[in-house]
Amino acid sequence: MKFKGLTALAAAMAVTAAAGFAGDVAARTLKVQTSSNASHFSLAYLNEVWIPKLKQMTGGEVEIEFLPIEAVVPRRETPEAVGIGILDGQYTAVAYFSGTDPGFALMGDLIAGYDRADQIQYLCSAG
Q1: Which residues pair with 57 in a beta bridge?
Q2: Which of 14, 87, 89, 122 has its CA 20 to 30 A from that of 70?
Q3: Is 33 within 8 Å of 81 (Cβ atoms)?
Q4: pLDDT score, position 81
Q5: String of DSSP letters for the chain
């Protein structure tokens, strides 16, 4: 179940990246820092299984380099690093950054945005 969500997120990132670089002739490698340690299974899965599929599906025009936690910048600085172009993306829970901006808490934990249980149920069934 976890891999389905991971794959769906990665696919969404790839589609977004592919749309943004559709006019580029040369291949583009996106640097994405994750919240996984270098030896963590999820990072290995992304790099060993999903990245080759992405390369094949895009004809090599879009590639993503998933980096372990703190490979480029400290974990608390990833939003700023993406904003100024040091990184092309981050793959972590945005709720970690709610101290920087309280809006991240809502984006990272949508359950916090609902007043009643029926609102959550509606999102799951009809959302």
Answers
A1: none
A2: 14
A3: yes
A4: 95
A5: -HHHHHHHHHHHHHHHHHHHTTT-SS-EEEEEEESS-TT-HHHHHIIIIIHHHHHHHTTTSEEEEEE-TTSSS-GGGHHHHHHTTS-SEEES-GGGGTTT-THHHHHH-GGGG-SSHHHHHHHHHH-
Residues 31-57: pLDDT tens digits?
Answer: 999 999 999 999 999 999 999 999 999
Report the chain's mean pLDDT, rounded to a whole number. Answer: 80
Higher pLDDT, 63 or 120: 63
Cα–Cα distance, 50 to 62 (Å, whole number): 13
Count how many Cα atoms sit within 13 Å of the Cα of residue 86 in the half-sphere of its side chain: 13
Angle among Cα 50, 53, 56 to the nearest 5 degrees reads 155
pTM: 0.64
CATH entry 3.40.718.10 includes domain 2-92: no
Handedness of CA 109, 7, 55, 46 (dihedral sign): positive
| Domain boundaries, given as residue ranges, for the chain | 2-92, 102-127
